[in-house]
Amino acid sequence: MERFTGLIGIALILGLAFLVSNNKRKINLRLVISGLALQIVIAILILKVQPIRDVFGFLGRCMQHIEQFAKKGVDFVYGGVAAVGFDGSVQNYNTPHVFVFAFNVTATIILVCILVAVFYHLGIMQRIVAIIAKAMNFIMRVSGAEALSNVASAFVGQIEAQVMIRPYLKGMTNSELLASMSGSLACIAGGILIVYANMGAQAGMDLAPTLIMASLMAAPGALVISKIVFPETEVSETMQTIKLNVHKEYTNLIDAISHGAGDGFKIAMNVIAMLIGFIALIALIDFTLLHIGHLFNPHFDLTLDWIFGKIFYPFAWAMGIPETDVSHAATLLGQKLTVNEFLAFKNLTAIPNYIQTPKGIVIISTAICGFANFSSVGMQIGGIGALAPERRADLARLGLKALFCGTLASYLSASIAGILM
């Protein structure tokens, strides 16, 4: 019966979305059912159809090669720097299998951003996004702008996905705007996905197929949840229309590579700054909580992890995570929502046997594979607001709703994956 616990998770997630819906009678059941069916089909293809799973396993190995290629570049910059290897000995950074988070992760992000910029300049990225968006538009009957934005979010960053629909932002309905924001929070950018897959590989986990599945499932999942929370009641300018903005931002290929490297460096430095700041802040909060707990009981170690473990326990259990892993999984859910997914993946992959069961690893890695956290909401309001200043007030009003929808969309994908495991 444990296999079907995820059905409780699906009911809980859809029930929460329905509870906060602003117009329950206008919910489009066809859209909800077709979106759930699309998620299930994606999960079955990747988890159960061996040839498809082999393809995604191959993509995972390609991701590991990308990290190796990135290391070639960073070796030139950091070659000669001493690092502590997995066996505890001090080694040259160039030594194979030596992993330093700040060096390896930033290098991978920069290389992937370069590749994305090159693919975008050549028009390859736009064509891939448009093809998938047309399929989702046909199946779910959502507007072209929503489909494009949500599909693009599975490949590029939160703001970059909105750049692709920049001409439509001004005239989008609030329901469309929420759907686009939710999709960007539920999905994960390709560059970050590769980083997480390689972090898992370092820990002996093959996370690549699961993470690709999670990001692909998040696109229809975010539309399902957002359209329950904020059903469409207006006429969209892009209903049944898929027309991608193909304006090229780069002069030539060299310009694309240069901009990609610059953008990658900014993202990498932002990741490092957030991790340093948030982890330091968590240490400060834990220090305070520990002393508060000891006031009541000298043996009670009150921490944020303990609090997260209690608050998110029902969600972790309802998604079908095995009992032995529920407490730790709940902690990761809390870390991902309140801090960011980087910290959650770092703890998942760096702490030996933190999640012990293969099913638990698949479900929790799917649930935390997304940008839905409080800091990302601020980034979206600022980033999309710069693209469409006249919508800034709407963005601010929809920010927390988008966080709610993006989080539930990831949990919905995790619940479906748990049933199929």
TrEMBL record:
InterPro entries (alphabetical): C_nuclsd_transpt (IPR008276), CNT_C_dom (IPR011657), CNT_N_dom (IPR002668), Gate_dom (IPR011642)
UniProt-recorded name of the protein: NupC/NupG family nucleoside CNT transporter
UniProt-listed PANTHER family: SODIUM/NUCLEOSIDE COTRANSPORTER (PTHR10590), SOLUTE CARRIER FAMILY 28 MEMBER 3 (PTHR10590:SF4)
Domain spans labelled Concentrative nucleoside transporter C-terminal: 211-418
Pfam family, one: Gate
Secretion signal span: none
Domain Concentrative nucleoside transporter N-terminal: 8-80
Keyword list, A-Z: Cell membrane, Membrane, Transmembrane, Transmembrane helix
